[in-house]
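Incident log, entry 3
Record: Caveolin (211 residues)
Problem: checksum mismatch between cached and fresh output.
Input:
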Amino acid sequence: MSGGKYVDSEGHLYTVPIREQGNIYKPNNKAMAEEMNEKQVYDAHTKEIDLVNRDPKHLNDDVVKIDFEDVIAEPEGTHSFDGIWKASFTTFTVTKYWFYRLLSALFGIPMALIWGIYFAILSFLHIWAVVPCIKSFLIEIQCISRVYSIYVHTFCDPLFEAIGKIFSNIRINTQKEIDQKPFLILLPAYHYKNFQTIEYLKNFIVNTCTS
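Fresh output:
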C-alpha cells in the first residue's frame, strides 16, 4: 500500500500517504526512541560520583561532624597558654584527619564489601521472601475473615441480640425508707419522762410514716 494510488467517487486521483517507519500500533515509535536517546539515563554502576560533596543526603551532619570546638572548650577565667591551645587544636585536627584516612584506607574496602553483601541479602530476602509471604498471608486471611464473618453473623449475632432483649426487660425500682430511730433520738429530753409518753410518740411516728 505504500506509494499506491486510488480514485475517489468524483474521479480524482490521489496517492496513498506513506506511513512512517515503526510499529503499526505505535506509528511514532521512531520519534519516541529518538527522544529517549536524548534523555540522559543514569545507571547506578556508571554514574559519576561527587568527590566534593560526599554526603548529599546529610546523613552524618549531626553525628560525626565534630570539630575541636565541639569537644574541647575553655570557659572564661580558665585559659591555658596560647601556644598550648594552638598546638592542641593542630594536634586534634591533624590526628583526626590522617587517622581517619588511614583507617578508611585499611578497612574502607572490606567494610564496603561486607555492607554491600549485607544489604544485598536484605534486598534479596525482602523481594523474594518477605513480600510474597505478606501477599500470601493477606490472601489467606481474607478467606479466614470471610468464614469468621459468616460464623459471627450466623451464630453470635442472634445469641447476643436475644441476651440483650432479655436484659432490656429488667426494671429496677428504688424506694427510700425512713428510719424511725433517729426521730426518737432527736426529740427533746422532757418527752422521755415516763413510759406512756415514749409509747405514744413511737406510735405517732409509726402512724405518720406509714400513712
